[in-house]
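Hello,

Our lab assistant flagged a job as stuck in the queue for most of the afternoon. It eventually completed. Since we weren't sure the result was trustworthy after the delay, we are filing this so someone can double-check. Below is the sequence as submitted and the structure that was eventually returned. Let us know if re-running is recommended.
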Amino acid sequence: MFRAASLFRAASHPVRHSIFALISAGLFFGEQRAVAQYNTAEIDGIVKDAQGGVLPGATVTAAHLASGQRVVRITDEVGRFFLPALQVGEFTLSVELEGFRPFTQTGIVLRVGQKVEIPVTLSLGGLNEAVTITAEAPLLQTANAEISDVIANCPSTAVSFCSWHS
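-- returned structure --
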């Protein structure tokens, strides 16, 4: 019976290294290609009151302006929210909790692979009062130092292996 393991043992030492290198490169670049296929971004944050106390149970809504798609989450027991796999583009983020003024932040522009943290502070008040923030400067990505962009609808988060050996 023919077995790949016996063929591998029978191969000379340089051939074994070449086979190992090819398999390793295939795994490495295959994973890079799979990672690069995602063209989404994410928003997270913590909702607090004016005194710094966390607010569980707040409703967080992210609305994608171009498509109208809305993603709704409820803050957890420590006031955190996480909105993964969002389309790239411009969003409006709204946060509501009974007994507090609604919070709205407009002009949130997400790019491929971006992870944006938005801290939210709710003020006491009725639902008929609101706090609105308009983003004027690009949001900073604080989760990592990765820079990515889209070229011909393909994310460019991976660095070419060939450019390392030039």
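-- support follow-up --
The delay was a queue issue, not a problem with the job. The result is valid. The chain has two domains: 1-36, 40-151. The longest strand covers residues 40-49.
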